[in-house]
Amino acid sequence: MPMLAADRPLPDKARPDRPVQDGGPDLRVRLAHDAESATIGAGEGHRLTASTGRRSRTLRPPVRVTVERGRVRLVDAAGGSSDWPRGREVLIASDRGGVVIDEALYPGDAVIVPKGESAFDVIERVPIEEYLPGVLSKELYAGWRDATYEAQAIAARSYALQERQRRRALGSAFDIESDTRDQAYGGSEAHAKARRAVAATRGVVLTYLDAPLRAYYSSTCGGRPASARDTWPIGQGFEFNLAGPIQATPRQCPCGFSPRYRWTVTRDTETLAQRLAAFGADRGSDLRQLRALAAIEPARRNVAGRPAVYRVVDRDGRSWRLSAEDLRLALNFTGRGQGPPPTDARAWSGDVEVAVEGATVRIEGRGFGHGVGMCQFGAEGLARQGRTAAGILAHYYPGARLGPIR
Questions:
Q1: Segment holding 212, helix H or strand E
Q2: pTM for this one?
Q3: How many whole angstroms from its chain centre is CA 130?
Q4: H-helix or E-strand containing 129?
Q5: Whether residue 176 sits in one domain with residue 93
Q6: DSSP tag of 250
Q7: Contact by Cβ (8 Å): 255, 220
Q8: 341 and 285 co-located in one domain
Q9: In Å, what is the CA distance from 20 to each residue of 9, 59, 201, 220?
Q10: Same domain, 359 and 387
Q11: 322, 348: one domain
């Protein structure tokens, strides 16, 4: 497989030897978690069929879904109801493809997965090439360059396939979340540019050591990338976070036009200490003992100069270490009595300089997101300079290769 080469088109050898059939591998995308009810519809004149493999039933949409005593219960528009075997997943598909789930259109089929006595997950089963346009339309601005979209298509495809492989090895009922825990996804709400980029890169992925690369990306790196090994677990089952192409290296990034390239927010010192302690309690860490915040300072920086670990210091001299990503989560933590911080006071990344000034904390930050892998604003900046998708990917994932889905 060819190495990525800057400023060259996608090499022919990176493309599949034959077209990806039927939209490529299926993904199981979790759309709803622990739901108590949902409505499944279809286009005008369409019919829905519910099945468990051995049993099927034609339904008139829309269909209301609930779970009672562990059994999926479906009630269609004609008033007909059906109960399905306890604990069994139920597939609901349209006769013409695509389903409407709680008023949003999706290109795949719906799978209802019972969880306990009365809750369920809604999972869409969809070919990856039909899934990706709904990701690109959510992740990028509509006016951005085609090369940015093509680079994002390859990165998103690679990430999804790696997570699919990981989840299936664990025996999970789904492959990927439909929000920013994995990739933002808008279903069939996709524009023409996104569809063109997916078609132009059809079946092409980033690989490292002959496996799909977990091609992380975020909005704005602020000029300094983060390393996957510093940001997420690296123990058994997470060795993929040690892959060379997703570690920080010194680089130039033209993301200065991002509205989050530089930002400053202020917080109340006492309430921020309470939020940090609540985060510690939620994580089961000793940070829950924090009472009076004295300082938050970098404890270690990576090779690109971005803080990787911070030290949170109490006024009595005690201190606790947090990764940069955990600090970002802690500064924005919601739960255990803490409501969400105001939008204009959020910490947008973990690359920050913090000054505790009496009753006020001043946070000066760089970028938006975790900073690992491709910077989306930087990718657009490179596209504006004339870089191709291959060139953009070579810049952000050094050492990765382009190859076909296998």
A1: strand 211-212
A2: 0.93
A3: 17
A4: helix 128-139
A5: no
A6: -
A7: yes
A8: yes
A9: 20, 32, 11, 32
A10: no
A11: yes
The one-digit pLDDT tens for each residue of the chain (406 residues) are 455 655 666 765 565 544 445 789 999 999 999 999 999 999 888 899 999 988 999 999 999 999 999 999 999 999 999 999 999 999 999 998 899 999 999 999 999 999 999 999 999 999 999 999 999 999 999 999 999 999 999 999 999 999 999 999 999 999 999 999 999 999 999 999 999 999 999 999 999 999 999 999 999 999 999 999 999 999 999 999 999 999 999 999 999 999 999 999 999 999 999 999 999 999 999 999 999 999 999 999 999 999 999 999 999 999 999 999 999 999 999 999 999 999 999 999 999 999 999 999 999 999 999 999 999 999 999 999 999 999 999 999 999 999 999 8
Q: Which of 329, 349, 345, 331 is nearest to 222 (CA)?
A: 349
- Contact by Cβ (8 Å): 230, 302: yes
Q: Which of 372, 371, 373, 353 is nearest to 363 (CA)?
A: 353
> Are residues 189 and 165 located together in one domain of the fold?
yes
What is the number of structural domains in the chain? Answer: 3
Query: Domain check: are 355 and 389 in the same one?
Result: no
Q: Quick check: is 6 in a domain?
A: no
Closest CA to 110 of 205, 39, 216: 39
290 occurs within a structural domain: yes
| Domain boundary, last residue among 117, 151, 176 | 117
Task: Among 117, 145, 171, give the residue marking a domain's end.
Answer: 117
Q: Indicate whether 62 belongs to any domain.
A: yes
- Whether residue 205 lies inside any domain: the answer is yes
User: What's the domain range around 60?
Assistant: 37-117
The answer on 199 and 111 residing in a single domain is no
Residue 266 sits in the same domain as residue 313: yes
Torsion of CA 207, 209, 212, 214, to 10 degrees: -90
Beta bridge partners of 28: 125
Strand arrangement, sheet containing 81-83: 81-83, 71-75, 63-68, 38-41, 99-101, 104-106
Q: Are 75 and 40 in contact (CB under 8 A)?
A: no
Tokens describing residue 224: 């300094």
Burial of 320 (0-12, 13-18, 19+ CB in 10 A): middle
